[in-house]
Structure formats: C-alpha cells, structure tokens
Amino acid sequence: MGELAYRRVLLKLSGEALQGDAIGASIDTTILEGIATQIRDLTKLGVEVAVVIGGGNLFRGLTGAAAGMDRTAADTMGMLATLMNCLAMQDALIRCGQPASVMSAIPVMQVCDPFTRRGAISRLQSGEVTLLAGGTGNPYFTTDTAAALRALEIGADVFIKATKVDGVYDKDPEKHADAQRFETVTYEEVVERQLRVMDLTAVTLCRDNSLPLVVFDMAQPGNIEAVVRGEHVGTRVVARD
Description:
The protein is of the alpha/beta class.
C-alpha cells in the first residue's frame, strides 16, 4: 500500500448521490450506507475527512426561485435540506462504527452544533468525520462554493468532488460521444473554456488559494481511496504555476 497524498480532505457530495436509482425516494439507505463505509475506511487510513452534502434530492433553492418563490427563502430551504442529508449521513456513519458530528452554518441547536473553524478542526484531529451543513449560511451561494470555503477554512489538503462521471470533460460526455476527459486541467482553463466543473465563485476561491480539486466518480469501488493515495483517478484541477 502506498503513502497517502492527502491527510485532510474535504469531500463534496451532491444530494442526488444519496438517491441512487430508487424511484420516489429522497435517500436510498443502501447508497447512504455504502458511502458511509467508504468514508469510514478512509479514516482508518489516517485521513481526516470533512464532508459537505448538497440538498438537491430534497429541495433546490434555484428551482424554488424559478417557480416564483422569494430567492432568499428558497435558498434558506435548500440550506436546511443539506442539514437533513448531513444528519442522515451522521446516522449511517455512527451505525458503521465511525464517530461523526454535524456542524451547521445555520444554528439549529437542538440537532447539531454551529460551525466554527476551530471546532471543526478539533473534531477532525480527534478522528471524527465532520459533516458541514447549512451552506455558507447565506443565500445566493451554491453548495460547491460552501465546500470550497470550508475546505480553505479547515486547511484541507485537497477538495475532492464526487460526481456521476469520471472527471472533467471538454464537453458533456452524456451528449457527445467524442468528449475527451482531462487528467489534469488548470483553473484558468476551466474558466476560459467554460468547463462545467463548479460555479465561478467556487472555482475562483480554489484558484486564488491554490487549492487542488479532484473530480471523480465515487460510484466506482475504491476510487475515493485511490484519490487520497494520489493515484490517477478522475481529473485533477490545479492552479497555473
């Protein structure tokens, strides 16, 4: 077994990743438990893991706003949806033997603690998986931006983003058979070529702070461990030298 390339990681999951293929279900418990097991196995390697989960399986702020809702109200509902997903993941982690806790940018004292940078780092250092809910606590910011921000705040070595595809492509691989996957790409190229990796705010945060990003397919067994070992999985996005 090789050495670890990263010791502290921020894992970003979409809310849709928890649905699997279950029809009419917001969370597929089999998928949830499978992801929890992979995260637990990371901690056994000595990796400190923070997790941000989107809320799109429950409620998406932009969708609500497009339907006529006030944008701030809709985004707040979306942020609360991320808290529900984090509570579900916390339960799955604890049931598979992994200590975990939820911290939220929106205070909900009855169910979790408010996010603080020092508190999150302390929990990571103690071996807890730390689930970071509530986005940034502010409307008009995506969960990807929240994940990039939290990765920087906790001093993560890498931002790893699980997706439904195996990396970053020059065009949508689901629509174009000739789409080419990048093994490595710079943030500048992402912006210039308008590659659909994350929103521009998240990309800029990572670029300006030289935070590496790895985009990969978590559905493939062993991928997440391969990422933390520095193996060539998915696409690595880096700042230009």
